[in-house]
Amino acid sequence: MTKPQLRTQILSRREALSPEVRAEYSHKITQTLTSLPQFLTAETIHCYLSFGTEVDTSEIRLAAFAAGKRVAIPILEKNTPILKHCIIQEHFEFTNGHWNVPVPTGIEVGLLSAEELAMTEKDIIIVPLVAFDKEKHRLGYGKGFYDRFLQHEKALKIGIAFSLQEVGQIPFESHDEVLSMIITENPQY
Ligand code: ADP
Ligand code: MG
Fold it and tell me: What is the CATH number of the domain that holds 76?
């Protein structure tokens, strides 16, 4: 199957999960993630704001704030294929940005490049994904934003997904980044 075919198939599979089940699985994923020794020692947690039927990341950020960590989120800009980033505080307001991805209000002054964010190998990047396989290959939404970002990062790259997003084999290209770990609601994964 091609990447576009896989995206369509897996996204419709994910949309079939009820909101209750999605919330329950997101909670389990958060528990597993926040119990990792690497989570406890990380100084910065980079975590996308979830939208649509993605794994809900709000509890992950709450846990990071409670542990006194620096919390960063990606910011999509329409005219560049490079992600920008923003450090957020616990109580922030957000609105819908490009492609309906939530963005905090009032970020104009706080946009950072990945270099300025300066994450290290101690830190964690939570990576959204459409589909994954056992090789920890990842299929995104098709714009390559995370491939470009992760390419230069030494932080632990943790994909989070529901187990129904696993496929036999992702068509893997040379620009695709391999994840360090994938967490699903299934503890044995
Ligand atoms: P996704 O990872 O979002 O599923 P793809 O892997 O299909 O999407 O990549 C989408 C586009 O982004 C491709 O045309 C690819 O050439 C481009 N791309 C991905 N990573 C890079 C990179 N590191 N440098 C330049 N272009 C890239
Ligand atoms: Mg890719």
Answer: 3.40.50.10420
